[in-house]
Every structure is written in C-alpha cells, then in structure tokens.
Specification:
heterotrimer, A alpha+beta (71), B alpha/beta (884), C alpha+beta (245), C: two-stranded parallel sheet, two-stranded antiparallel ribbon, CoB--CoM heterodisulfide reductase activity (chain A), EC 1.8.98.1 (chain A), Heterodisulfide reductase subunit A (chain A)
Chain lengths: 71, 884, 245
C-alpha cells in the first residue's frame, strides 16, 4: 500500500530537483545513511545546517573502547 | 571568515553573519585579497525545492549545556570544562594544539576530576531524567588519554554506578581502574567554588568511610550528557512527526527507525542517546527501510561514474610526483615542509614536487589530477597522513588522472611524524625526509594491479531465525531479493519466544507471531528449520552453503550471508539454582508471570540477584540487558501486588538510556535496591520466616552500613548472564569470521563497521554480536539488511588487487602456504612438474602469511612484494653495504 | 597486510645494511581482526632471529617485537622509547659485539642464502601459536640453532647415476640445475636454496641426487666430460668411459 502511494512513476525525473531520499543532518549517522543509499542505487540529498559534515564525531579526539582516531 | 576546522569536509572558507559588509555594507578587503576572485558578497539564501520519496532524519544530539544550572559553575569558574571542551583540549587540532592546559593560567593541570551524570539522570528542572549512555565510557577514555599526555596526573571520577554495558566496555573500565593514581568514587559531587588564588576547583563529595569532605582539583571536567537537537520542536513541526517527553523522536520499539509519519525515518541519536556504532547501524537500517519503500525506483536516478582510460605504464621509466601536505598546520608546524620539498626534488625519478595546504581538499585533488596529466607522471606519493583513512580517496584521484590506482604510495608524515615529535622539529623534518625517501623508493617498484569484478548472486542467506534474523530476512526480501533463512530449532523465534512483554509494555508474543506469519507468507523467503550447515564455501557475491534440514539436504547459492545466531541464557550454578525450584532465572520468571503462576503472583517477597555468571573471571563482560530486565520484572510484580517485597541486589545498576526512567519508577514503587561487591556476594539458604513459612533467606552485606542484611524470599530470581551461542565457534570457522575475546562475533570495526566482518560479504546482527535489547536487535537487523543491500543491489562487486599470486615455476609444491592460509584461498594442484600452489585471488585477504613462509619466494603478496619492502629498507639505511 | 608478512630476509637485510636495531610492531596477540593470527608467526620469527643473532654473536636485544592495538599510542611510544634507549646503550651495530662491518656483511649474507632452508626446517615452529609467555625463551634453543647451521644440507647429483633426463632441472624452483638432454646435470651450489625438490624429483630408479650433510660437495665434472654416450639398451657411460654398475 505505502509503496504504491509513495513510489510514483519516476521516469524522466532525473532532471530537476527530484531525488529518492533526503537525509537531514550530516553527522556520522547521516553520512552512513547517505553512503548506503547511494551505493544501493538511490539519489540522495544530504543536508547539513553547518558548513561541514561530520557532526560531533569530527570533534572528538579518539573513540572508545579502542581509542582509535575519530577523524 | 572561517575555515570550520582543519579537516572539514568540504574544506571551504565561509563568511559568517558578523561580516562588516553583510551588516553595514563596509570593508570588502577580502574581495581584493583573494587572487582567484572567489568571494561573492552578494549571495543570498536560496530556497531549493526537492521532491523525494523518503526522508531520513539524522539531526543528532546537542551537548547538554551546564550553564542552565549555576551549581555546575560552568562559565563562571575558569577551570571547569565540559567533556566536549576537554575532547577539544586533548585533540591535536584543538585550541592548544593538543596540550591540555587550564584556561586560567595556561598550565597543565596536575590533578583532574570528572563529575559524571551532569545533566543526566536527574529529576530537577533543566536536567534530563534519562541516562545519556555514553558519558561513563567517554570519561574513562579521557582518563586514559590524560594519562597518555602525562602519566603522573592523578585522575578522579565521581560517579553513581559505572555503566560499562557495551561490548568491550567492562575491560575498558578495568583498564582505566588499573592505571596508577586513578580513583573511582561513588558519590554525588558538587562544585563549591574555586580557590581565589590558584583558581583550583573545590569539589564536595561524600564517601562511606570519611563522610562529607571537600577536595581541590586543578581542573574539573563535567561529563555532560546528550540533549535532543536544540530545535527539536521546529524539526517535529516541519516534518510532521511526534517527539517524546524528552524531545527525542517518538519511535516504536518494534521498529525504532519508524517515526509517527510513514515515509519519514529516524537514525542516530535522535532516536535517543546512542553510541557511535548504533548511530552507524541505525543509519544503514533507515536506509534499508527507504529501500523497502522505494525499491521500484532503485537505480533510476543514479548515474555511474566514468573514469578516463588507464595509460599503460608498465614499461615506462618511473616518473614520480610527490605532494607534501601541510595538513593545515598539523604537519607544517612541526615538519619544515618547504625544506622537505626541496630535499625530495633531489631524489631519483622524482619529476615533480609541491606542497599543498590540504592534499585531501577537493581543489588539491584536482591539482594532482592536472599535474599527473601535464607532466605525464606515472607514480604518485602523497606525503600526508595515514593511508587508513584517505588511501581510497587518493587512489580514486589517480584513477581520475588515468593511471593505475596502485601506483600510489602514502608517506605518513602526520601520525608517524609531526604528531608524535611535536617538540623535536628538526629531527621530525629529518624523519619526514626519510619517510618520503622510502616511499619514493617503494613507488619505483610498484606495479599496476587489476581488481577483480565479480558477479553478485542476488540471494542472501540468513543464519538464525530469531528476532534479528527474521527482521533482517524480511527487509532484504522486501527489497526484491531471495532470502534463505536457516533456523537450528524446529520453530522460528529464538529467545524472543521466551519473552512476553517489553519494558514499555508491548506484547512480544503478539508481535512475534505476526512477524513469523509474514516470514512464512513471503514468497521470497525460504525457511529451513532444524537446519545444520555442513559446508560453507565461496566468497563475496558467490557463496555456496550446504545444509541439511527437516526438508532434507540442500545446496544454497547466495551473494551475501548474515550471521544472526543469537546468544543463550547462562545456566547458573550459583545460589541454589537447579537445587531449589524457588530459584529462577528472569526468563523463567517472565514465563511464569505470563501464565499468572500462583507461586509468583502470591509471593510475599522476591529477591533478584544481578550479575550471575558474568562480570567475573570466566566471563569478563557485562550482559547489558539484565538490569533493565530485572527492573521490568520488578515493576510487573509490584503491579500485581504493590505490597510485595521486591529487592534487587546489584553491583552497578546499568539502566542506560530511557530505561533509567523505569529504574526511577521502580524506586518510587518501593522496589528496594541494595548493592553488593564481588568480594562479598550474596548468599542464599533455605530458612523459615518469622511467620513460619518456608523461605529462602538471602543475605547481602550492605556496602554503606557494612553489616549483613537478610531478606526472606519466596522466590529468588537470578539475572543470569547472556552467553555466546554454543554454535558460535563452528559458524565462525565455517564462514571464516572471527570471534572476540568474550566469544561473541567480532565485527569489522567497533565504531564504523558494526554489522560487517573483515570477510567481505558476511554481515552480523543481533545477540550474536553482543547481548542487546529487542529494539537494539531490530536496529542492527535492519542495519545488516541495509549493508547487505549495498552489495546485493549491484550486479558486480570489485575486490582488491593487493592479493597473493604464485609464480608456478618457482613453486616447489611444499604446501607451507596452504597450511598457513586460514581463508583456504590456496590449494595445491597437480601439474606435469608436480604439485603447485594456486591462489584464488577472490578469497585471498592479502595478509601475506604465505609469502613469509614460502621458501622459494614463489608466492608473492602483490603491492607488498619483497622487492617493494626491501627497497624501503634500503632507502632508509643511508650507507648500504651490498648483501650479495 | 599482517605482521606475519615480515620475512626473515627483511630483518637480515636491515642489519646487513647497517641498521642498529629492528623493531617489529604487531596487533595484540589473540585479538586478530581477521582470522589469521599471523602476529604469532611474527613472534616466532622474532624469537628465532634473536637466537640466530645470539649464535653469531650479535646482541639479540637489537631486535624487538611488541604487540599493541591501533589505539595504544602511549604503549607504542613507550615501547619505541625503551627500544631506542637499549640501542643507544648497545651503540652502533657490531661495536659492542666486536664484529667488523665486513664480517657482519659476510655473516648476514651467508644467513640470507640459508633463509629458504631455515624456512623449511623450522616451518612448524614458525607457525605455531605460543600462548604462554614463559615458553618464549625456550621455543628455539641455542643448540638447535647451532645444529641448524651445522646440518645445512647440500644436494649433489652423482654423474655416474644421472640419466640426464631433465626432470630435476625442470622441477628446480630457482633454476640452479645445469644440463640438458644427454648432458649430466650439475647443481650450481651458489644458486641452490637447499629445498630438496630435486631429491624428490629424481626418479627412484635412478637415485642420482644425494643429500650431503656436513661434508663437502664433490667438485662438478668438467664441462667437456658431461656428455653421455649411450651404448644401447639401458646402459650408459659418460665420455670418461667409466662403466657403471
């Protein structure tokens, strides 16, 4: 049901601002979602309110419990 | 004008609202200064309308602002910082370039304290009632890193139970505890003020031995928790979704990715306070659900990247281009980059050298492409950071430039040089030259390698028919793929069959029945009950698994495999379990509760004992779910009979996240919590109560009073550990994936690859990974589906060219290589010259063990050949003595 | 790539080129991210190399192996600092050991030639997983190393038995066997890696290849005497007219 409602015929939409998914927020979760969707064949718009993606994780020094570099 | 931070992506300068021109139409100095005419002060906000089929909300969290409560002293006392501030202080790109300094006097603090639960687990206005889930462990990480900076610094953590509930957290906690001069003090701590002269922070706290006392610390770190995103109300309104009472997204515990509005999904910390791996797999999970929704239009809007044709440089004289990165100031403030560039110019075969501010910036990569073309370079050395993060990116750059991507070598002059030799600039520059010289020497010997394009079988195999396995199977099948679902038992459902309600009051059995029905009705899901795997062969995209099941033997061909074999409840040997039928585990209690068993509903006293069978020498980990499980059952007992005496004997209550609310609720309902220590565990013995009824007497030493307290219990309920499935070892060796030290499956990367293995094409979800609550298992199951789809939705998959190869002539057929290859990638084949080793490059993971044991040098790990490695050794040592 | 990729030849090469110390870093033992556990191989290799160095009079402390995770920068730094201190104490290679650079070069070169032989002889011990740290020291003994070098085998083709059939020459992985159809085969002892492939390859009815342990290898026949003159049937003689039993 839902599938039919939302998945309108999309041929010819490649031009213009048609996409498959909008991801709101470019932190680690938004980046991963965008990458996965794009690899799985979808056109994704990733929108981030700040000037760069990476979110909080980009500001951490290391991550536990392996203490790997966060960048 | 700013650059957001040194490694920002995209790395562009931007102008903020404080610009004089934007405010008062003055200045414009920057326009004149920019040589490239790149500044446009007339840009205005643009409204862009996008039409999409689905939305994923991943706005993340905001850090709790301790300024909302004056008592924290934040902003008022100079040497009180938040955990996030401290994170920046420790970081090489931080305010003092990685030096931890006090704001008051720019000195290193010699005594640091952490105050936990700042803004979390409190009922008071401005604070959050929930547990932020991440602060206990991030504070421990900060202690370890503080000790890295200066091993002498005493570190004190004031906490109220250390919540080391995640995978590897318990040993991480122990590692922190074992550091010299580290104190964990269980006490609420308040900041009294500061010493006016030294600006040291005065902290008041209480201990059982010494009562209330005050102590000075040179720096205090507030372990602030996670808030919902600041504008959660605006976000909710804009997208028409509901938020919960805390301001996080309102989710359904049966599907935590779903918001209250179809087509809009949520991932990451907007679900609730989450750690990084959960943020990552909920993202893949939300992706999977978008995929289910939009499957019919998959691939219609995407375009394939086209690379220019590759030039054949096999016979060409090496022409090397070296790009030395400043990494902002990360490298250049220690290593003399211009001097290094001048030196590199003198090296053989180097035809181009230049420095770059950030080699990884988009414009720099473009410059690399242009230079390669212009100067006909056929080797590129990037002297910058670790290949771990950016090698893939630079390889792509080489491909863009039309040369084989294995003609790249990265000289790590950041992690291996500038970051670790910050105080020895001259020596660091000399070392940078050595590193680049070695890299140049190696690059001369590099060979172009071909990667393998493999066809992908579109079917998936899911091993394990529990909640995680079924959820994952359904998601993959709903995206148009055949799924073979294997269950070792006669029925689907796994551990969930024994669970009857969730902590938020959902009926598990009803949901489970629905799920099982969907599985059986799905035309693309093929269920094999009583399944045993007899053989698993093949590789990414092309696995062949042989099984026997109630349906007889079968051979399954599949492109991906998901390990979802779950875990088991520990069978206790402690506390009279198995000897006295009044001693139960929580699963058993749950089953009896569901049947309204009179022995349970009629009990006057119930004592629950936590940490049975784990957090000990045999199983040195926390089973994560038991604290919440006990609280759930305690609340149910209280709901049946509010007069029932319910006691939870615990070590640390680890009701992380929103479950903290139920812990608080249980306290309010009169559930008694009493702490015990591993040195003095509770005892259980049959006894008679004052009223003459036969009871079990549980004696616990109260850690505050120091005396034994005895409870009369009609039932004793043990929070039995979750232990790895008995089949784990076998499944691990069949699919050639590793188990971690606790016996659970070991994911590819704790943070960034939480649902995959180093073995390509094999994915992981559910309790096979680690104990977890049902919503978490569902998250991870969809996550594994999402990752599997990134493979299955493509016709081909590319595998690395840096694999082993045999020179048949040199092979003496001794089989040493076959023996050491744990991936079974090598076999001996009969030839006219006797047996010879043959490598299946698709299975080879490029570890190179075979190369090291080969007596004749017949088997070679490409990209890391003896020739390449020895050229580096030779380049390092300045006065070579000829060996042969 | 795994620390198990480190080759004995790499270590020898570094010392031959004048390195004063060699440090091998591997992942924590038992915490392999793959399923290879190759760091145990690296450990064995280090233990073996140390014993070899002890045998030749080079201080074994010049080689150091340590295991750590990517997140343990502090451990890495302290290991390296400690090792640098050791090396500074020991001074330039050969100095405290009183081995001249020329002698060192010669010894390293000799051992490097024996790497294939060592790999074959010690294959089992080089690929086991040593769980107990107390067994490290005795995994390889000095006696064993002494024997290893004393018992270096050489392979020799008896010209009297050689049928010049090319089987061994074709099977030699390093093309160390000279000769052709009708020409007695001779092993070039400089090229030979002592793998024994020729011994196994030579048809048992000929049995021309022999393994010589300890003793010297007879000099090869002069080039002009290697042609086989067949006298019909299965008998044959070399041009020296020596009739075979």
């Amino acid at each position: 049901m839902e599938n039919q409602l939302i998945a309108q015929p999309s041929d010819g939409f490649a031009q213009g601002n048609f996409g498959d998914v909008i991801v709101v927020g470019g932190g680690i979760s938004g980046i991963q979602a965008s990458l996965d969707l794009a690899t799985a064949g979808f056109k994704v718009y990733l929108i981030e309110k700040g000037p760069a993606i990476g979110g909080h994780m980009a500001q951490l020094d290391k991550t536990y419990p392996t203490n790997d570099c966060s960048m | 004008m700013h650059i957001y931070f040194a490694q920002a992506i995209p790395l562009i300068t931007y102008i903020d609202e404080s610009c004089l021109y934007l405010k008062e139409k003055k200045c414009r100095i920057c326009e004149g200064a920019c040589k490239n005419d790149a500044i446009d002060l007339h840009q205005t906000p643009e409204k862009i309308e996008l039409k999409v089929g689905a939305v994923i909300l991943s706005p993340g969290y905001d850090v709790f602002d301790p300024k909302v409560r004056d008592e924290y002293g934040y902003g008022r006392l100079q040497n009180v910082v938040t955990g996030m501030d401290y994170e920046r202080l420790m970081c090489a790109t931080g305010p003092y370039e990685g030096e931890i300094l006090r704001a008051s006097d720019r000195r290193h603090p010699h005594n640091v304290a952490w105050i936990q639960c700042v803004g979390s687990r409190r009922d008071t206005a401005g604070d959050n009632g929930y547990c932020s889930s991440v602060c206990c462990t991030y504070a421990q990480k900060q202690v370890i890193l503080t000790k890295d900076h200066n091993s002498e610094t005493p570190c004190t953590i004031f906490h109220n139970d250390v919540r080391a509930y995640g995978k590897g957290f318990e040993t991480f906690y122990q590692r922190t505890q074992q550091l010299p001069n580290v104190r964990f003090i269980r006490s609420y701590a308040s900041i009294v003020g500061e010493d006016p002269e030294t600006k040291n922070v005065i902290v008041r706290y209480a201990t059982a031995d010494e009562g209330v006392k005050e102590e000075q610390f040179e720096m205090v770190v507030l372990s602030v928790g996670l808030n919902p995103p600041k504008d959660y109300q605006g976000l909710a309104k804009k997208f028409g979704i509901e938020v919960n009472g805390h301001g996080f997204c309102q989710i359904d515990s049966a599907n935590p990715m779903a918001t209250t509005r179809p087509g809009i999904f949520v991932s990451g910390a907007f679900q609730g306070p989450l750690d990084i791996p959960e943020s990552v797999f909920t993202a893949s999970a939300a992706g999977a659900q978008c995929g289910e929704l939009l499957n019919s239009r998959r691939g219609r809007l995407t375009t394939e990247r086209v690379y220019p044709p590759e030039t054949d440089n096999t016979a060409a004289e090496p022409r090397i281009g070296v790009f030395v990165c400043h990494c902002g100031a990360n490298i250049s403030r220690v290593v003399d980059v211009p001097d290094t560039v001048a030196y590199v110019q003198t090296l053989p075969n180097v035809v181009h050298v230049q420095n770059q501010l950030f080699s990884c910036a988009t414009n720099s990569m473009k410059a690399i492409v242009d230079t390669v073309k212009e100067k006909s370079l056929n080797r590129v050395v990037i002297a910058a950071c670790s290949p771990r993060t950016l090698e893939a990116l630079f390889r792509d750059t080489l491909q863009e430039a039309g040369i084989n991507k294995y003609y790249l070598d990265m000289a790590n002059i950041r992690e291996h040089c500038s970051w670790c030799h910050a105080r020895e600039k001259e020596a660091a520059t000399a070392k940078a030259k050595d590193i680049v010289r070695m890299s140049v020497a190696r690059s001369i010997k590099l060979e172009p390698l071909q990667e393998f394009d493999l066809p992908v079988n579109r079917a998936a195999l899911v091993v394990g028919g529990g909640l995680a396995g079924m959820t994952c199977a359904l998601s993959i099948a709903d995206q148009g793929h055949d799924v073979y679902l294997l269950e070792k038992e006669a029925e689907l459902g796994g551990n969930a069959r024994r669970l009857h309600s969730t902590i938020d009051g959902k009926n598990v059995q009803a949901d489970l029945t629905r799920l099982i029905r969907r599985i059986y009705r799905h035309p693309a899901i093929h269920v094999y009950n009583e399944a045993v795997i007899t053989e698993a062969t093949g590789y990414i995209g092309n696995f062949v698994t042989r099984i026997t099941s109630e349906r007889g033997p079968a051979v399954i061909e599949h492109g991906a495999a998901v390990i979802a074999i779950g875990a088991e409840e520990y069978k206790p040997t402690e506390y009279l379990y198995g000897q006295d039928d009044r001693v139960l585990t929580h699963l058993e209690l749950g089953e009896r509760l569901a049947k309204s068993d009179a022995a349970v509903t009629g009990a006057q006293g119930v004592v629950m004992i936590q940490c049975v069978g784990c957090r000990n020498q045999d199983r040195n980990y926390c089973s994560r779910v038991c604290c919440s499980h006990s609280v759930k059952n305690a609340l149910q007992l209280k709901a049946i009979n509010p007069e029932m005496d319910v006691v939870i004997a615990f070590r640390d209550m680890r009701t992380y996240g929103f479950n903290e609310n139920y812990y608080r609720e249980a306290s309010h309902q009169g559930v008694r919590f009493i702490r015990w220590t591993p040195e003095d565990p509770p005892t259980v013995e049959a006894a008679e109560a004052d009223d003459g009824r036969a009871v079990l007497q549980v004696a616990v030493t109260d850690s505050i009073l120091g005396s034994k307290i005895a409870f009369d219990a009609d039932l004793v309920v043990l929070a039995a550990a979750i232990v790895p499935s008995r089949g784990a070892q076998e499944i691990a060796s069949l699919f050639k994936v590793p188990l971690g030290p606790d016996g659970f499956f070991q994911e590819g990367h704790v943070k960034l690859r939480p649902v995959e293995f180093a073995t390509d094409g094999v994915f992981l979800c559910g309790m096979a990974h680690y104990p977890k609550h049902m919503p978490e298992a569902v998250n991870q199951a969809y996550g594994a589906a999402g990752r599997a789809l990134t493979l299955l939705s493509n016709d081909i998959v590319t595998v690395s060219g840096a694999v082993c190869e045999v020179n048949e002539k040199q092979c003496m057929g001794c089989g040493a290589c076959v023996e050491v290859c744990t991936y079974d990638a090598i076999e001996l084949r009969k030839t006219r010259q006797g047996e010879k080793a043959v490598v299946n490059p698709v299975i080879c993971k490029g570890d190179g063990l075979c190369n090291a044991v080969c007596p004749t040098g017949a088997i070679v790990l490409k990209h890391f050949t003896d020739l390449e490695i020895e050229s580096q050794i030779d380049a390092l040592l300045p006065e070579p003595i000829e060996v042969q | 790539m795994c620390s198990g990729r480190v080759d004995l030849a790499h270590i020898l090469r570094a010392f031959a080129k004048g390195a004063d110390g060699v440090f091998i870093g591997g992942c924590r033992l038992g915490e392999c991210n793959y399923i290879t556990h190759g760091n145990y191989h690296a450990l064995n290799l280090a233990l073996l190399s140390k014993k070899i160095f002890e045998h030749i009079g080079l201080n074994p402390r010049r080689l150091h192996i340590a295991f750590m995770s990517g997140g343990e920068g502090n451990l890495f730094a302290s290991e390296v600092d400690g090792f640098c201190k050791t090396i500074k104490e020991l001074g330039p290679i050969g100095q405290s050991e009183e081995i001249s650079p020329a002698r060192l070069e010669e010894v390293m070169s000799d051992i490097t030639r024996l790497v294939p032989y060592i790999k074959i002889e010690k294959h089992e011990k080089l690929t086991v997983c040593l769980e107990d740290e107390t067994t490290y020291e005795d995994h390889f003994s000095l006696d064993e190393i002494k024997r290893l070098f004393e018992e270096v085998a050489s392979y020799y083709i008896d010209p009297a038995k050689c049928q010049a059939c090319m089987i061994c020459a074709r099977s030699c992985p390093v093309e160390a066997i000279d000769g052709g159809k009708g020409v007695v085969h001779v092993i070039d002892q400089d090229k030979c890696i002592k793998c024994g492939t020729c011994l196994n390859a030579c048809p048992s009815r000929f049995g021309a290849v022999t393994k010589i342990v300890g003793g010297p290898v007879p000099a090869p026949l002069p080039l002009d005497q290697r042609t086989i003159v067949r006298k019909g049937g299965k008998e044959k003689t070399t041009s020296t007219e020596k009739v075979l039993p």
